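Hi everyone,

Forwarding the result from last night's run.
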Amino acid sequence: RLSCASSMTSGEFKTEVYARQVNASRDGYAANADSAFAADAMCMYALMLHEALVVQGLPLAEMSARTPQAYSLVQSVLSRTNFEGVSGRMEFEPGQADPKASVIIRQVQPGGTVDVATYTHPRFNFLGRANLTFQLPGENFFAGPAGAATIE
């Protein structure tokens, strides 16, 4: 069960999101495949607020004023993130800014979005089926071969 939506599993959440993709929201936006990461980010933020304000008793005025003490507490709480999210277990290694999670690395290119690699902590796995294309001439790199951990 998800930490921030205990009535659902990750699969149930994704099924619901994809079912809603055919209909735009009342604001005109449709759900997309990145909604799992957005949901996990919101959960992480909500859990941090609960821990800092309710459990640790940080005054809201101090958080709003962005005092050094509030900043330190927020950073400490975020660094201890550990919950079951839509995209999997969300936690961080000590001193690391990236979560121990699995993600697909995509690049928006003319004609659509291209899956370039996967990342499962601590390793990249290039898929070997696309080029990374950047803005300047000559900045076009083969993202592979399949299974490679770096681009040569």
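The CA atoms of residues 100 and 118 lie 13 Å apart.

Cheers,
N.
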